[in-house]
Amino acid sequence: MNRRQLLAGVGLSISIGASGCIGNLNRAAEITNVEFETGVGVDKRPDDDPRVRFSDNAVYASGVYSTGDMCYDAHLEEPVYDVEDDKLHIELTRQHDGRDECEEVDEAVSYRVIVHFEEELPAIVRVAEEPPVGSEIVKERDTGLLP
Predict the structure, then answer these.
(1) SS3 (DSSP) at 49
(2) What CA–CA distances, in Å, run from 62 to 15, 52, 57, 109, 124?
């Protein structure tokens, strides 16, 4: 009988401990600030994939993409954090500047996006650059946990 009580206690302790770990994995990252710069020095071409880097409290994305002709400006859509998937979505698009006549010159724009978080960073970041020549990358943060 003592053996059963011991095993039941150990099983309960393990299940409580495991549920605590699972609960910690479902935390919500909160975006506190977003910075967007164009015309920055990056060693990339429009057909290269964006670069994603994680730091202590921010996610950095950089690259170069085509905005088309001279009537379009680079535009960053509001970054979206999906709590359920623990995924940050960063989307770079283009906006027409309102001119009727435009030079038919393909314009490549370099950019840097920094998304700051309150505490935890998202596990996955998706960066998408609008076509015609845009790229997309999905990068997972190294959590240090074994797969």
Answers:
(1) coil
(2) 43, 7, 17, 11, 16
Nearest alpha-carbon partner for 74 in 19, 137, 129, 5: 129
In this prediction, residues 22-45 reach a mean pLDDT of: 78
**In angstroms, what CA-CA distances link 94 with 18, 26, 114, 125, 134?**
46, 34, 18, 21, 11
Hey, where are the domains in the chain? 28-140
pLDDT tens for residues 80-117?
999 999 999 999 998 988 888 888 888 889 999 999 99
The values of phi and psi at residue 144, to 5°, are 85, -5
Judged by phi (left if over 0) then psi (alpha if -120 to 50, else beta), residue 68 lies in: left
Q: Indicate left, alpha or beta for 18 from its phi (over 0: left) and psi (-120 to 50: alpha).
A: alpha
β-pairing verdict for 136-140 and 72-76: unpaired
C-alpha span between 47 and 129 (Å, rounded): 10
